[in-house]
Amino acid sequence: MKFKFSLALLILSVIMFTLVGCGRDSINEDAAGELVIYSSRNENFVNPLLEKFEAETGIKVLALHAGGGVVSRIVEEAGNPRADIFISNDIGALEYLRMEGLLQEFEPDGIDTIDQRYRAIDNSWFALSARTRVFIYNKDLISEEEMPKTVWELTDEQWKGQFAITRGGNSGMIAHISALRYEWGDELTAQWISQVKENAGAIMEGHGDIRRAVGAGEFRFGLVNNYYYHQQLREPTNNNVGAIYPDQAEGEMGAVINGAGIAFIKGSPNPDNAKTFINWLLLPENQREFSYASLEVPINPTIEAIDEAAVISEYRVQEMHLSMLGEYFLDTKELIERAGLDIELR
Amino acid sequence: MWERLWKNNKPDPLLVLSGLLTALLMAMPVVIVIWRAVMAGTDRWARLIDSRIPQLLQNTLQITLATTFLAILLGVSLAWLVYRCDLPGRNIWQWLLALPLMLPPYVGAVSYIMVFGPNGWIQDLAGELPFNIYSFWGVLLVMTLFKFPYVFLISGAALKRMNRSYEDTARSLGLGSWEIFRKVNLPFLRPAIGAGAILTALCVLSEFGVIAIMRYNTFTSAIYYQMESFDRLSATVLSVILIILTLGFLWLESIYRKNQKYYQTCGTFQQPDLIRLAKWKVPAMIWVFLIFLLSVIIPVGVLIYWSGYGIALGALDSNFFGYTLNSIKVAGIAALLSMALALPLVYLKSRHPSVPSELLNKISSAGYSLPGVIVALGLIFIFNTYIPWLYNTFYLISIAYLVRFLPQAIQYGNASLSMISPRIDEAARNLGYRPLKVLFKVILPLLSPGLMAGGALVFVSAIKELPATLLLRPPGFDTLAVRVWVEASDAVYHMAAPAALLVVLVSVIPLKLMLSRY
To answer: What is the pLDDT of residue A13?
Structure first.
């Protein structure tokens, strides 16, 4: 009797499968009014913007927020693309997709408000907000004056065991090391990787773990994207933290930045709506909201930054173009692998 | 030839067909992984073998074997105390000690870091720490505390079915309690211990959340990291190693089960007497309560603590009703399908032991330890390309759960069926029943408690599943596990805690069902 019940439910499921197959036809009727967006960003920062777009244009947005794995989903879907737009936390990912031939070029309105350093050579992707590499530090354990001011100082023995970094394969770290290679060359960078790996008190899976550990006083400071510093300020407890933008003195390389931005998928099922979205997003008010909600710094220096953050033109940043992240990627990964930092945690 | 293949014990063709289709479904992601690994080229293999695989192999085997060993110790000892002894409150304990299954292990890990970590509550109270939580021992502690119920539940089920006649006979021959345990009870428990051990080992193999936050390194974490760095070839190669490890454990379990034919052949089943603990009652209660404290009270306490903050900040809203329904829907479908599909495989393996039935069972479990993200990507490729009408539906999520968790239903089914004598089948066939009728009319009623327990376990596992859900879900379809992840991925625990608490609450009913039926 129990098996018959299960069997009945199984048959019901099969019927539902069929109905779904039929039901998809009605979905196709609305295809002209749809836009499919994949995002690796936290949805709390993206959804308000997408809702605003829907309200203003009448185009229905279907959003998939799925973390870094979305890149792999886009790659797997290459034979039958499903997404129109990809919003990413990591410009390296966007450049990777472009180099794999999975993006299409487009000349959007307002693209000139984004400096060329922060877009693809064919504008198939562009950054909208900066994720600046900063030191987050615990104000109860160390003062701003005592803090190291350059990333090279992390190689100094005096900091041994006192700071936390992510594993080398973290996208923020990969981009950081690419920038160091651009500035210093491979030999010096390899030396930095080895020494920092040895000096770090912990190697963590993600930046969220670092900010939480620094906030709790487990380490004096950590190397994170600035977003995580702002996030720790908003924790209900353990929130007495500060931030140092490294390498700001005359002649120094400036802070390393990655970006968050968007890309236009090749084979996009709704290309016209995708173009509408891209043009819309480049409007000043929407550029502001893209970075504001996520506690990042607008790439466009004329856009207002959040209260406790610096405007991007107010601090020194790397010279390396973000579009170079793609060509640097494989060699950077190999350098990291040779140092043994790519997957190790401790 | 067909006859000889089945050792002259040919099964009904429908059973074979069902087993074959199930094995095909389960094999899809595995085949894709192997294909891509072969295409990866010898250079990638050589590089990984030189630089990564040895250490990962050591780390992975150490944590897997140690956890399995400790889970057996905890699981069997607790099952013995709860099911066979006059432990006070035993009817409640059999339910309470299964609760760790409802908790996402990641939640357990976070709570242990909060309590035992540097600057944790113990540090605040006592000024020093008993041990470093970020170590092999920390991972081992958390893994054991959240995996032992697999052994506890299956062992408990076996103990409930043990016939007292054997013990009476042994006692009449002069054996003492310890010898009866060792020579009578333990052999009867071997199939259950084997099934619990294999589930534990394979769950540890595929665990990622605990490994990542506690800063350990295994094949599974390495696969995730390689995928995250777009190194799909390395991820594929490492996944093949994981498949080999899985098959290795399954093979060991086969060896362990060989020549085990422990059936209850006495005409009348009698429940054994409860063993009097007498002076051991207090130590036993302390042991049971200690495990409960460590595996349930601490993590649930931390969840409630964080939920207080989160709910005050609006972490729960009316959308959560939809998320809960979504979770129940996809996990429920997976549970039902797993019960239906496990039955033929289990029956073939037990009643028609042969190369084909063994092969079908192995193939159906080979992908068990594959990370959810690898399973998901394999399914994306297949369904998006060849079966697009199912792609971007929530059914694909249930299919992924089936691929990931069917082995749990199979193991429970195996453990249950191994306690039912094949003589019952023979008797029914002698009375004129056709083979399929024997299965459905006679064996299924006896087997259904075990199958239902397996289905409940699949449900509980599926409700917590994240990586495959995240990648396969249609845009706009969220589950409770996804909601936990949305906040937990940036370590915003107070906002993640209420959803995690809901996962626990939603899991109570199937767990209760599992225990009352089994």
So the answer is: 53
The nearest alpha carbon in chain B to A76 belongs to B381
For the ranges A77-91, B149-163, B207-221, which has the lowest average pLDDT?
Answer: B149-163
Nearest by CB to B476, which of A63, A96, A218? Answer: A63
Going by their DSSP bridges, the two strands A241-244 and A163-166 should be labelled as unpaired
**A190, two tokens:** 């390899």
Count of CB contacts below 8 A, A vs B? Answer: 153
- The ipTM value here is 0.86
Does residue B104 carry a pLDDT above 80? yes
Q: Tokens 């900063």 map to which residue? A: A134
What are the pLDDT digits (tens) for A64-74? 999 888 999 99
Residue A222, H or E segment? strand A221-225
B139-to-B66, B133, B204 alpha-carbon distances in Å: 10, 7, 10
Compute how many other C-beta atoms are within 10 angstroms of the C-beta atom of residue A237: 9
Count Cβ atoms within 10 A of the Cβ of residue A249 and give its class: 0-12 exposed, 13-18 middle, 19 or more buried. exposed
Among B336, B490, B494, the residue with its CB nearest the CB of A6 is: B336
Kindly determine whether residue A3 and residue B444, on different chains, have CB atoms separated by under 8 Å: yes
Minimum mean pLDDT among B129-143, B266-280, B424-438: which range? B266-280
- Flag whether residue B497 sits within 8 Å of chain A, measured between CB atoms: no
Query: Chain A contact for B330, CB < 8 A?
Result: no
Q: From B474, which residue of chain A is nearest by alpha-carbon distance?
A: A64
Neighbours of B465 (CB within 10 A): 24
Q: Are B133 and B100 in contact, with CB atoms under 8 Å apart? A: no
pLDDT at B268: 60
B58, pLDDT greater than 80: yes
One-letter-per-residue 3-state SS of B245-308: HHHHHHHHHHHHHCCCCCCCCCCCCCCCCCECCHHHHHHHHHHHHHHHHHHHHHHHHHHHHHHH
Distances (CA, A) of A116 to A126, A132, A134, A321, A324: 9, 18, 23, 8, 12
CB distance A343–B225 less than 8 Å? yes
Q: Do A44 and B486 touch (CB under 8 A)?
A: yes
Residue A37 at interface with chain B, using a CB cutoff of 8 Å:
yes
Contact A42, A294 (CB under 8 A): yes
| Candidate from A3, A75, A218 with C-beta closest to B119 | A218
Residue B485 · residue B373 · CB < 8 Å:
no
CB A255 within 8 A of CB A248: yes
| Angle separating helix axes B13-39 and B319-351, nearest 10 degrees | 110
Interface test with B, best of A19, A22, A25, A65 (most B CBs within 10 A): A65
Using CA atoms of A258, A156, A193, A72 in order, give the dihedral in degrees to the nearest 10. Answer: -40
- Tell me the chain B residues in contact with residue A15 when contact means C-beta distances shorter than 8 Å: none
- Cα dihedral B63, B64, B67, B73 in deg (nearest 10): -140
Q: Across chain A, what does the average pLDDT equal? A: 87
pLDDT in tens, B256-289: 877 665 555 555 666 777 877 778 889 999 999 9
Q: Is B456 on the interface with A (CB under 8 A)?
A: no
Residue of A342, A339, A345 lying closest to A193 (CA atoms): A339
Q: Which residues of B touch A77 (CB under 8 A)?
A: 380, 384
Local structure of A136: helix, strand or coil: strand
**What SS3 state is found at A88?**
strand
- B215·A216 Cβ contact <8 A: no
| Main-chain phi, psi angles of B229, to 5 degrees | -95, 20
* pLDDT of amino acid A2: 44
Look over chain B and give the mean of its residue pLDDT values, rounded to a whole number: 87
Mean pLDDT of A33-40: 94
Nearest to B443 by CA among B454, B451, B455: B451
